[in-house]
Amino acid sequence: MPGRNGGNGGGRRLRITALGHAGFLVETDAAIIVADPWLSPSGAFDAAWFQFPRNHHLAALVQEKLADQRKARYLYISHEHKDHFDTPFLDSLECRDFTVLLPHFHRPALAQALADYRCNELVLLDDRQEFEIPGGTLKLYLDDAELNRDSAMLLKAGGKTFLNLNDCRINDALPVIRREEGHIDVFAMQFSGANWHPVCYDYAPEQYERISKKKVLAKFNAVAEAIKVVSPTFYLPSAGPPCFLDPMLVHINFEKTNIFPRSWELTRYLERRLPDSTTACPELMPGDVLDVSDGSLSEEGTERVDESGYRQYIEAYAALYAGFFHARQERYGTWQPLALLGRLEEVLRVKLEALDLHDRVTIPLYVGFTDAPDVMLRVNFVDREVSVCREMECENFYQIQAPLWEVARVLEGQLSWDDFAHTFRLRLNRDPDVYQTIISAFIRLEPPDLKRFCEKVLNVESRQERIMKEANGSRYLVDRYCPHQGGDLQYGWIEDDRYLVCPRHGWRFDLEKDGECLANAGGVHAVCLQDD
């Protein structure tokens, strides 16, 4: 769908201003594109996440640029996670003579949230659909997989190309994008963790650190592999990490090892991992400007943090919000556990009815409250039953607990289930300690999404295509698609001469054990072909 302001005019200028987290302000001679501005001081995910470093002062700059009627202006929101979709900031914009660009997901939540947004035009773009802007084009790549609903942006303007992956898991599409689009000048991609494992799980410190190190290394390695494929002039660390200012969560910032590494840790890794790479990896602070046209970098950001000043910076940042969190704790008051449990039971029954793959989960899920641990719900997936109980009755189980007030906010519609999962105010436990995709989906997704999730799983399983992979001198015939969420293993890589790694989420399949996935439930079929 061509834009109403499309055309072939414009000069050769392309400037990218880092807005912090996954936000970018892109300027050409003829157009302004603002991507994922998370700028409001209220944080995200019920004030669990906050921007690091602070970037709230850049709201005025973005407002000014989006009001500049000398250029065509576009606001792009990649997906509905609140560290990308900042509704308080969007509502604060007074001049809205710009076009909003959104991915056209099957689930219409994002489009519906902005359906009444007063702006010039709201455009929904399908996967790989090209949209004309003055002097260039903009294309979105969609990952519409329910558990990972996201999009990436490819911008061509001023004779330059900017591929902004943010935290969209389409690493397996990068070889095709690179082949079809040619040289990528600037590439931005998530490098930090963003989910509840192992942050919210009850692990011993040594196990917690071991899991965290493994996940950070996998994320860093995925970035390195992506840089090798894309071979950009610049790589910009993006989409993380947040920081945590709530007294319940502030300790996460100071853990020796967790899944939230800072950008300087990544750049040190890339220097070791890719010593011969020609890709520059500048660490942009909010407000810094990269002029892609001439390769110059202007350190215009006023909030600058390095490794030595990190703790002091976070402590001062948290002190600014101490009064806010104290007042909020008093405002939420107390809830009666049994009354809330009854409401929760009804919602879980609705979810269970929507879960068509319920019979695949043979262990129960226990759902309860951290501040009322003597009463909980037991979800029996096989029999589609939800019942009240006082204690866990099985050796094998999955358990999730959260504060009464946080569960109440979900039931009142203040938070989606996915937002709830990102608050990190949860406590989880499981035995055996194996990731179960269906349970994760059951907790995080809304009922209508659960049906489509099940359809997606069955669709991946129905694919019969196989590929050839080589490891340690042997050839293996392997299922092409990852059973997790359908990542294309054709573009996976081999680690330690035996493990095939999925490029989307880093699942590792042991080729010497017929494709077994040791860390997660599920695997691929892998047959070793003996050479004649």
Can you walk me through this structure?
The longest helix has 26 residues, at 205-230. Helices cover 27% and strands 25% of the residues. It has three domains: 14-322, Metallo-beta-lactamase, Chain A (4-Layer Sandwich), CATH 3.60.15; 333-456, Nonspecific Lipid-transfer Protein, Chain A, CATH 3.30.1050.10; 463-529, 3-layer Sandwich (Rieske Iron-sulfur Protein), CATH 2.102.10.10. It starts with 13 loop residues before the first strand and ends with a strand. Strand 3 (31-35), helix 1 and strand 4 form a beta-alpha-beta unit. Helix 9 (337-354) packs parallel to helix 13 (447-462). It has helices spanning 59-66, 87-92, 109-113, 174-181, 205-230, 263-273, 310-320, 322-332, 337-354, 404-411, 417-422, 437-444, 447-462; strands spanning 14-20, 23-28, 31-35, 72-76, 99-103, 121-125, 130-133, 136-144, 149-157, 160-164, 186-190, 234-238, 289-291, 296-298, 365-369, 372-380, 385-389, 397-402, 427-431, 466-471, 474-479, 493-495, 499-501, 508-510, 526-529. Residues 1-10 have low confidence and may be disordered. The protein has an eight-stranded mixed β-sheet with strand order 6-5-4-3-2-1-13-14, covered by helices on one side. It has a six-stranded mixed β-sheet with strand order 7-8-9-10-11-12, covered by helices on one side. With 532 residues, the chain is of the alpha+beta class. It has 13 helices and 25 strands.
The residue-averaged pLDDT reads 92
Supply the CATH superfamily name of the largest domain. Ribonuclease Z/Hydroxyacylglutathione hydrolase-like
- Major sheet strand order: 6-5-4-3-2-1-13-14
Radius of gyration: 23 Å
Task: Kindly identify the CATH topology of the largest domain.
Answer: Metallo-beta-lactamase, Chain A
Helix content: 25-40%
Work out the strand percent: 15-25%
User: Alpha-carbon distance between the termini?
Assistant: 54 Å
